[in-house]
From TrEMBL:
GO molecular function, one term: metal ion binding
InterPro entries documented for this protein: Metallo-B-lactamas, RibonucZ/Hydroxyglut_hydro, RMMBL, RNase_J_2, RNase_J_b_CASP, RNase_J_C
Classification via SMART domains: Lactamase_B
Keyword RNA-binding: yes
Ranges of residues in domain Metallo-beta-lactamase: 21-219
Protein name per Swiss-Prot or TrEMBL: MBL fold metallo-hydrolase
Organism this protein belongs to: Bradyrhizobium retamae
Keyword hit for Metal-binding: yes
Pfam families (UniProt xref): Lactamase_B_2, RMMBL, RNase_J_b_CASP, RNase_J_C
């Protein structure tokens, strides 16, 4: 007798971390499954640990192998951690992509900014709409978040319904877009939900996330009270915040000047899709200097301390069009993403030294999260009443706290997992049944590398301990043709005694070569290895660190 179809779930990114989201759902048996992918996002490199790495993406080896069984890729919303990897990874999958109007328009604008983007077919789905993808029926349920058209996905199958929440919060007054559809979520609960796969980002925070309307009121008050120029920086994707800033500027009789490419692109997409209807036209950065200080407001990119973004350049006084002076104000209408604290702190300190007033969420309600706090998580559970709850979208602490909350709320089965775990949701007892290949890909310039990439490992080592380059020319009899060339990069010039390290290394190279048996000197590889060991040892002795050492021996 044939075994019944199993419904499975596996995160390939976004669990145990915030960012790089990729979830897959499978329906079938162990030999043949149809797959549905949800989101395909990035996280961002850390210069300290991953020097030169721009983006980090999920390893999609498993989906590549299963691409003939992949029914499609469905997007919950258009934040980079949910759709930022599509341009780079879609060519390996070649599947259809489904998104609502705003997400599709933003993706089109993102592709237009690339040099040679692949032609990716994007199917637009209406908010609240349904699509049939093989054995999956996917329903887009509106939820409030910090970007327009965020959706939870109700994935209906023969085995049961899964609610994949995406990023969400409960905000009855979201300024732009629809509030979270409580009525439809309660209906789903009445119909029966097998599993809830849910956002854990704010599971450590009690209470409820405040509304965007409350932030708008604070910004209006601050802009109205400001005497000099005002700059506001926020996530470019937060169109509701953009509208709040525009309304505050209008009330204070200020013109809005948009500064930064990402912000310009978002304004264009928001206008095209109707989300800024009725909002006054904004000006380009070249108009900034034409207005008196109390008649202008700069809406800037750079809330995360990005070194080439508008705010960093303004803070460093090297922006070609926008300047701030003593008595002006900067409002950080954003939260600092973990890992960016140093960069943001540096900009804030730079502004304060110049006598500019800096306002952050530490002293005023100028930002709210787009993710649910604990009372909101309890509400979702009470509406949906899932049989199984799986926390995702969070680090270990967030997942653990979400799991504890779900157990306390009476969810019959709560399961925590890691990237790569394949979980059987039903029929029968749920559990982890397999481990799928998972990992990270690094975007290094134009190249995608895996996490064991030689370049990444060596660059990290070079950043810590520099590099020594040695070039030696030898005759076929094993004699030095000329003095060796020594070049030390990122290594101190002198040791603690004041001796020049280049000269110490040069002497060691000569003495090492001359001390080798003649037969060994005629072997280029053996000579290079002996010199490499000697150079690393003498630098370690004089400095306390062992650099990368590259020795080239030329036999002439």
């Amino acid at each position: 007798m044939a075994r019944p179809d199993e419904l499975t779930f596996a995160p390939l990114g976004g669990v145990g971390e915030i960012g790089m989201n990729l979830s897959i759902y499978g329906l079938g048996n162990r030999h043949q499954r149809s797959w549905l992918a949800v989101d395909l996002g990035v996280s961002f490199g850390d210069e300290e640990h991953l020097p030169g790495i721009d983006l980090i993406m999920p390893d999609i080896r498993f989906l590549e192998k299963e691409r003939n069984n992949l029914m499609g890729l469905v997007l919950t919303h258009a934040h980079e951690d949910h759709f930022g990897a599509i341009i780079d990874l879609w060519p390996k999958l070649q599947c259809k992509v489904y998104a609502t109007k705003f997400s599709a328009a933003l993706f089109e604008a993102k592709c237009a900014a690339e040099r040679n983007p692949p032609k990716i077919p994007m199917t637009v789905v209406p908010s609240g709409g349904r699509i049939e993808l093989g054995p999956f029926t996917v329903e887009f349920i509106p939820v409030a978040h910090s970007i327009p058209e965020s959706h939870a996905l109700a994935i209906h199958t023969s085995v049961g319904t899964v609610l994949h929440t995406g990023d969400w919060k409960i905000d009855p007054t979201p300024i732009i877009g629809l509030p979270t559809d409580e009525r439809r979520l309660r209906e789903l609960g009445d119909e029966g939900v097998l599993a809830l796969v849910g956002d854990s980002t704010n599971a450590v925070r009690d209470g409820r996330s405040p509304s965007e309307t409350e932030v708008a009121a604070t910004i209006k008050k601050l802009v109205g009270a400001a005497k000099g120029r005002v700059a506001v920086t926020t996530f470019a994707s937060n169109v509701a915040r953009m509208k709040a800033v525009a309304d505050a500027a209008k009330a204070a009789d200020r013109e809005v000047v948009v500064v930064g490419r990402a912000m310009e692109r978002m304004v264009q997409v928001a206008r095209e899709t109707g989300y800024l209807d009725g909002v006054q036209n904004f000006r380009g950065a070249d108009y900034y200097g034409h207005f008196p200080p109390d008649k202008v407001l700069a809406l800037c990119t750079g809330s995360q301390g990005e070194p080439r973004a508008a705010l960093a350049r303004i803070a460093n006084n090297d922006h070609p069009q926008v300047t701030l002076n003593k008595g002006d104000s900067v409002i950080f209408s954003s939260r600092t993403i973990p890992g960016n604290e140093k960069a943001v702190g540096s900009i804030i300190n730079g502004l304060i030294v110049q006598g500019i007033e800096v306002i952050t969420d530490r002293n005023d309600l100028v930002h709210v999260s787009g993710h649910p706090r604990r009372d909101e998580l309890r509400d979702m559970i009470s509406w949906v009443r899932p049989q199984i709850l799986i926390p995702v979208h969070g680090e270990a602490l967030h997942l653990s706290e979400h799991a504890k909350l779900a157990r306390a709320a009476g969810v019959p089965k709560v399961m925590t997992c890691r990237n790569g775990d394949l979980i059987k949701l039903g029929p029968g007892e749920p559990g982890i049944i397999d481990e799928l290949p998972s990992g990270r890909l690094y975007k290094d310039g134009a190249i995608l590398e895996d996490s064991k990439s030689r370049a990444v490992v060596e660059r990290r080592r070079m950043g810590f301990a520099g590099c020594a380059f040695v070039a030696i020319a030898m005759t076929d009899k094993g004699e030095l043709v000329d003095d060796p060339e020594v070049d030390l990069v990122g290594i101190p010039e002198k040791n603690v005694a004041g001796e020049i390290i280049d000269e110490i290394v040069f002497d060691v190279v000569v003495s090492t070569v001359e001390g080798l048996p003649r037969a060994r000197r005629r072997d280029a590889d053996a000579t290079a290895e002996s010199v490499r060991r000697a150079v690393r040892a003498v630098i370690a002795e004089n400095w306390g660190k062992k650099p990368i050492c590259l020795v080239h021996v030329l036999m002439v």
